[in-house]
């Protein structure tokens, strides 16, 4: 484990994230411009793809970080049987959920029940598939639907806010099942599907298109919201949620419904809309 990763165990995660949130939402132009210029330069952000490419026109760093893309910058895979990639970034890991466990990194794994906050919620995904997509600070930070689905329930699972960078993923056991997260359950034409928005150190929040800000407030107990009967349906490739700083989204699929696109593997760079998997 690296020294930096080891130090994160002792850091006041929520305090640091709350401080980062204050900076991200500051409308002081000296603060916002410094943050935008620093991130753009350090992470080589491609502003040509942004609907608004002028970095000076964003009132806050958070407005810049959650910027929209210009029309046509991303398109859904042309095959109507393709489940599409939910975000820009890179594949951290993907594969089969074996004996209820999801592979994190060499020597590290966690259970689907831990991730979702419930043994019952994990049952439909026994022997199913998982895909973990890491969004870096340079990436587009809106998460979209892999497939058309009707929102059934969200589950806010409290936890820590470790970094989700490669060093932490390799060094922190059960990282994604320990960090604060929002679990979004959908009903689809092939059965259940779940997208998990995983928070991280210095993440200011998670917002959804149906209810706005979900994290913060940071939780101290599991909180469920039932959306059955409300008719909240999101189409394949439609925006679902957004991060207010870089993090990770994990998609779970039930067994036997799809196969991953063959070119995908750990560390594969990916873009929103490309084929994630194909329905059988």
UniProtKB/TrEMBL annotation:
Membrane topology (UniProt): Peripheral membrane protein
Organism of provenance: Stenotrophomonas maltophilia
Main subcellular location of this protein, as a coarse class: membrane
Reaction(s) this enzyme catalyzes, per UniProt: a 1,2-diacyl-sn-glycero-3-phospho-L-serine + H(+) = a 1,2-diacyl-sn-glycero-3-phosphoethanolamine + CO2
Residue numbers marked as site, Cleavage (non-hydrolytic): 246-247
Keyword Coiled coil listed: no
Keyword tags: Cell membrane, Decarboxylase, Lipid biosynthesis, Lipid metabolism, Lyase, Membrane, Phospholipid biosynthesis, Phospholipid metabolism, Pyruvate, Zymogen
Protein name per Swiss-Prot or TrEMBL: Phosphatidylserine decarboxylase proenzyme
């Amino acid at each position: 484990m690296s020294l930096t990763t080891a130090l994160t165990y002792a850091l006041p995660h929520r305090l640091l994230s709350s401080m980062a949130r204050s900076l991200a939402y500051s409308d002081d132009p000296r603060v916002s411009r410094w943050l935008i210029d620093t991130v753009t330069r350090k992470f080589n952000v491609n502003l040509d793809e942004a609907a608004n490419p002028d970095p000076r026109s964003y009132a806050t760093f958070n407005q810049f970080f959650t910027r929209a893309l210009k029309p046509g910058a991303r398109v859904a895979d042309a095959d109507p049987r393709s489940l599409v990639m939910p975000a820009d970034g890179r594949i951290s890991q993907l594969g089969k959920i074996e004996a209820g466990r999801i592979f994190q990194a060499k020597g590290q794994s966690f259970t689907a029940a831990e991730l979702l906050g419930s043994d019952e919620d994990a049952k439909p995904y026994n022997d199913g598939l998982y895909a973990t997509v890491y969004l870096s600070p340079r990436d587009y930070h809106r998460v979209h639907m892999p497939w058309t689905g009707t929102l059934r329930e969200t589950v806010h699972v409290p936890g820590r806010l470790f970094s989700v960078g490669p060093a932490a993923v390799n060094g922190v056991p059960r990282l994604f099942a320990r960090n604060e997260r929002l679990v979004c359950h959908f009903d689809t034409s092939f059965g259940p599907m779940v997208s998990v928005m995983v928070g991280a150190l210095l993440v200011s929040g998670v917002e959804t298109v149906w209810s706005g800000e979900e994290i913060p407030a940071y939780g101290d107990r599991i909180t469920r919201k039932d959306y059955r009967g409300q008719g909240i349906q999101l189409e394949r490739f439609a925006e679902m949620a957004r991060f207010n700083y870089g993090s990770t989204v994990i998609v779970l699929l039930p067994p036997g419904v799809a196969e991953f696109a063959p070119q995908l593997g750990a560390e594969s760079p990916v873009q929103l809309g490309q084929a994630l998997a194909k329905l059988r």
